[in-house]
Write a structure and sequence with these properties.
The chain is mainly α and 153 residues long. It is built from 5 helices and no strands. The chain has one domain. The structure holds fe (ii) ion (2 copies). One fe (ii) ion (FE2) binds next to helix 2, helix 4 and helix 5.
């Protein structure tokens, strides 16, 4: 347990570092899904592998968050955050399910037709949901620890 009134910079730094890493993965995938990719597009298998990697990474990240105690600590420090913290945790399985659906529906062929548009839209929607999630999560922890991480989105 983190002593009241003190922020553990190592643990919180780790959380924020993971969020930055997730952003980098999302950006790389966004480039893969980009419709006009002059230099040729990434093969479907590479995109699928990257999505699966993201899913594994995300699952691990969520487990760490759920077991890491940041959210509980935030609630202990500021009880009014409990609803927001519960909502954030409830989003974890939904986000993983959304990503699973995206992988399941990914076209199997390297043909950029309508099925790719659908997959690209699905990925863009997933990205928005994940980034909104991380923003809400940062806000809960930031308020709980009364600390400005200087990390907006
Ligand atoms: Fe989370
Ligand atoms: Fe997170």
């Amino acid at each position: 347990m983190i002593p009241s009134g003190r922020v553990d910079p190592v643990i919180l730094g780790h959380l924020l570092g993971q969020h930055r890493d997730l952003h980098a993965r999302l950006l790389a995938l966004r480039a893969d899904f980009a419709p006009d990719h002059d230099a040729g597009h990434a093969p479907v298998k590479a995109i699928r592998d990257r999505l699966l990697e993201l899913r594994d990474h995300l699952r691990e990240h969520f487990v760490q968050e759920e077991q890491g105690g940041f959210l509980e600590e935030s609630i202990a420090r500021m009880p009014r955050l409990s609803v927001a913290a519960r909502e954030v945790v409830a989003e974890h399985p939904r986000l993983l399910a959304e990503l699973d659906t995206l992988v399941d529906k990914l076209p199997t062929q390297d043909v950029r037709d309508d099925s790719w548009d659908e997959a690209a839209h699905g990925f863009a929607a997933f990205t928005e949901h994940l980034l909104a999630h991380e923003r809400n999560e940062n806000a809960v922890v930031q308020q709980g620890y009364n600390e400005d991480f200087g990390y907006g989105d």
